[in-house]
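Hi U.,

Before I forget, here's the chain from the pilot set. I'm dumping it here mostly so it's searchable later in email.
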Amino acid sequence: MSTYIRDTAIVLRVRPHRERDAWVSFWTRHHGKQEAYATGLQTSTSKQRAHLQPFAEVELMLAEGKQFLRVAVAQMTAHHGSAARVHPVWSGILGAICRLCEALSGPQDPLEDERIFLLFRFVRERAAAFTLPFSPERALFVQAFLLQRFAGLFGYRVPVQQC
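Structure:
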């Protein structure tokens, strides 16, 4: 009998696998980074396809198998904001943060720091609420600041005085 992991998560990345399936990376609130296999995700009739988009916040149930986790249920939460309406600059910033989290943590990472999840949520909420145009300088400043904050949560903080 399978056991399940239930948690709230932010979708970091969706990688296609074969014709219809995908590997999905999540940052969960209480279980750190998780990577799971989603069968049939790339079909046009998939019910979970709209829920498992990068930057989306989902209520998640993962089934533990012998080799890897499988996505059993994924549904967007009320706090999901609008990942589709995110300004292109914020989309780039969120993408950089997701790549940083992918690089600094491995699948099923034991790092269970809720502050990382809450910082993800904070950045997503600001991205959905921000409507003003960005200057290139401001975009780089915001991206550098947020990447420095995320790296600090993983233990790689660089003192600002050294920059």
